[in-house]
Design a protein that fits this description.
Oligomer: heterodimer
CATH class of chain B: Alpha Beta
CATH superfamily of the largest domain in chain A: Thiamin diphosphate (ThDP)-binding fold, Pyr/PP domains
Order of helices and strands of chain A: HEHHEHEHHEHEHEEEHEEHEHEHH
Order of helices and strands of chain B: HHHEHHEHHEEEHHEEHEH
CATH architecture of chain B: 3-Layer(aba) Sandwich
CATH architecture of the largest domain in chain A: 3-Layer(aba) Sandwich
Helix content of chain A: 40-55%
Radius of gyration of chain B: 18 Å
Number of domains of chain A: 2
Strand order of the largest sheet of chain A: 2-1-3-4-6-5-10
Largest interface: A-B, 29 and 32 residues
Helix content of chain B: 40-55%
CATH class of the largest domain in chain A: Alpha Beta
Strand content of chain B: 5-15%
Strand content of chain A: 15-25%
Distance between the termini of chain B: 28 Å
Distance between the termini of chain A: 35 Å
Number of helices of chain A: 13
Shape of chain A: globular
Number of helices of chain B: 11
Largest sheet of chain B: 6 strands, parallel
Number of strands of chain A: 12
Chain lengths: 309, 296
């Protein structure tokens, strides 16, 4: 476990500023939280702090993108997804303007600030917008890869980041594209498809399940959209059991995306979705908060076992 | 410049004003015909802004219709996107596409969507329709000119509906902060919105004072946006005042040109029925004949 995901991302964004003159960064008065402050310090002329005005920020980025600049927009995930939905849909995605939207403090990671700051609907919202890609990096190095990937696309991309330190996973190799599901552990009894912080939680759960004699396959689904249906369906076709694990509402996120895709494929499988079960959360220490709302190693073990019994 | 040269220039401009005034009257007829034929679209706000857009596209904006994506072109954002047919009409006759295409307005597979869509219609610089986006996007486009060291100008037109949206005021604040060179806001202040008079729906007055308080450079005079000569005067004044961003208010008449439609919120977007068409079209034709006579 190294520095926080946001620190790693912010530093890398500033580093990219040295190589890319077309990179412009915007923030909505949270640059010291999102860590776009590194870029702001290095490139003040290419940094725009528009104040607490997410809608305006996204449309300014859209305007910048029409003139071939590459804006990276930073705000808390909840405010970006709820306060700038119209702008993301009607200006960025509808017009296919390549703006990178960075949702900081994703999921429950802004744990102490409480439900008003915890982002549990952003993936559902972003996923429903045509022409917008949706990424959830599982660790810091994947967050940097996500940024590189997003800057290569000719469409807007939403990257959801975690506020905190997250365990480092085995690095994604160059021949593993960002949009491909990565199997971090192979297994035959149950597939655990996870995204973000839940990937490392799922890996721990798989170890415990192995002790119980249950062979769990762990998939890192870093790209919710596009969704790598072929890798997912190949796995679930073998195991016939799927546990999805996400730091999001069970409505409309990773679990929904997997269920929809697999059902349309005609694959018979049993499913349990781990996530916040359609309720409001609260303040508290991150780990305890995740566990209280059903996002934990124990819960994955319990639900995976239940699917098998 | 000698007095003779100046007199010649003034004479040329006077003639251009008359020609463009007639052109605007002609555009109104074209729009009225299409809106009646299609039984869908927005007459009121298209008609109110007709002289301003005609003057912009035929006198002021630096454009190349054969190269609509020319990176140094001036930009125009019709934030009140429901006046789409006006933008399409002006673009077509400015040479961005064949005027025959106007007849496909709002049809399936048409390049002319209900509201402007930049990825389908040549010459449209930004898709609009949902109100309140234009000023923000204009700030972004103008800031891009600064970063890329370009000298193009960015014009945004809003109506009252746009200024009801909170986002417009976020954008107005941010424009005052960054002072993007070349950003000009034009308010088509026709006093009527979809549900009724703006003063009843959501009062904006004192609008000029609001812009001043927000740090914008506003023209002292409110111009008659349906008088081509006054629109030309506003352009001269825009060129005279120093500092960015700039804003100009135009008093206009919603549904201008058809007496029984003027200032009536019903005609914001209602389909033009046969009897209204039959009664209204001769009025528009008469205005055009009169404007044409002044040119001759």
């Amino acid at each position: 476990m190294g520095e926080t995901m946001r620190d790693a991302f912010g530093k890398y964004l500033a580093k990219l500023g040295n190589y890319r003159d077309d990179l412009v960064v915007l923030d909505a008065d949270v640059s010291s939280s999102t860590k776009s402050s590194y870029f702001a310090k290095a490139f003040p002329d290419r940094f725009f702090n528009v104040g607490v005005a997410e809608s305006n920020m996204v449309d300014i980025a859209g305007g910048l993108a029409t003139a071939s600049l590459r804006p990276v927009v930073n705000a808390f995930a909840i405010f970006l997804s709820l306060k700038a939905t119209d702008q993301i849909r009607n200006v960025l995605a509808y017009n296919r303007l390549p703006v990178v939207l960075v949702g900081a403090y994703g999921g429950l990671s802004d744990s102490f600030d409480g439900a008003s700051h915890q982002s549990l609907e952003d993936i559902a919202i972003m996923r429903s917008i045509p022409g917008l890609e949706v990424l959830i990096p599982a660790d810091s190095s994947e967050a940097l890869r996500a940024l590189e990937y997003a800057l290569e696309q000719d469409c807007p991309v939403y990257i959801r980041l975690n506020r905190n330190q997250v365990p480092d996973l085995e690095a994604r190799s160059d021949d593993q594209p960002m949009t491909r599901i990565r199997a971090l552990r192979s297994g035959r009894d149950v597939t655990i498809a996870a995204s973000g912080i839940c990937v490392s939680i799922a890996l721990k759960a798989a170890e415990i399940l192995a002790d119980y004699g249950i062979s769990a396959e762990v998939l890192n689904v870093a790209s919710i959209k596009p969704l790598d249906i072929s890798t997912l369906s190949a796995s679930v076709a073998r195991t016939a059991r799927l546990v999805t694990a996400e730091e999001h509402s069970i409505v409309g996120g990773l679990g929904s995306a997997c269920a929809e895709a697999l059902s349309e494929k005609g694959i018979a499988f049993r499913l349990h979705r781990i996530g916040v079960r359609d309720c409001y959360t609260e303040s508290g220490p991150y780990d305890i908060l995740l566990a209280k709302y059903g996002i934990s190693v124990d819960e994955i073990v319990r639900q995976a076992s239940a699917l098998i019994s | 410049m000698t007095l003779e040269q100046r007199a010649l220039l003034e004479k040329e401009e006077t003639r251009k004003i008359k020609i463009l005034a007639a052109l605007a009257c002609r555009f109104r007829i074209e729009m009225f015909d299409i809106l009646h034929a299609k039984q869908t679209g927005h007459w009121g706000g298209a008609s109110s802004a007709c002289e301003i857009l005609t003057a912009l596209y035929f006198h002021r904006l630096c454009l190349d219709p054969k190269n609509p994506d020319w990176e140094d072109r001036d930009r125009f954002i019709l934030s009140k996107g429901h006046a789409s047919l006006l933008l399409y009409t002006v673009l077509a006759y400015r040479g961005f596409f064949e005027p025959e295409i106007l007849a496909s307005f709002r049809d399936i597979d048409s390049t002319l969507q209900g509201h402007p869509y930049m990825n389908k219609t040549p010459g449209v610089d930004m898709s609009t329709g949902a109100l309140g986006h234009g000023i923000s996007v204009g700030v972004g486009i103008a800031l891009a000119a600064r970063l890329l060291k370009k000298s193009y100008h960015s014009y945004v037109m809003v109506g009252e509906g746009c200024l009801n949206e909170g986002q417009s005021w976020e954008a107005i604040l941010s424009a005052a902060k960054y002072k993007p060179e070349g950003l000009t806001l034009m308010v088509d202040y026709n006093g009527v919105q979809l549900d009724g008079p703006s003063k009843d729906i959501m009062p904006l007055e004192p609008l000029a004072d609001k812009f001043k308080a927000f740090g914008w450079n506003i023209l002292d005079e409110v111009y008659d946006g349906n008088d081509m000569k006054a629109v030309f005067q506003s352009f001269r004044e825009l060129d005279r005042i120093v500092g960015w961003p700039k804003v100009v208010l135009y008093h206009t008449v919603k549904g201008k040109g058809v007496s029984f439609m003027e200032g009536r919120n019903t005609w914001h977007g209602a389909p033009i029925d046969d009897s209204s068409y039959a009664a209204g079209r001769p009025e528009l034709a008469a205005f055009f004949e009169q404007a044409l006579a002044e040119v001759m």
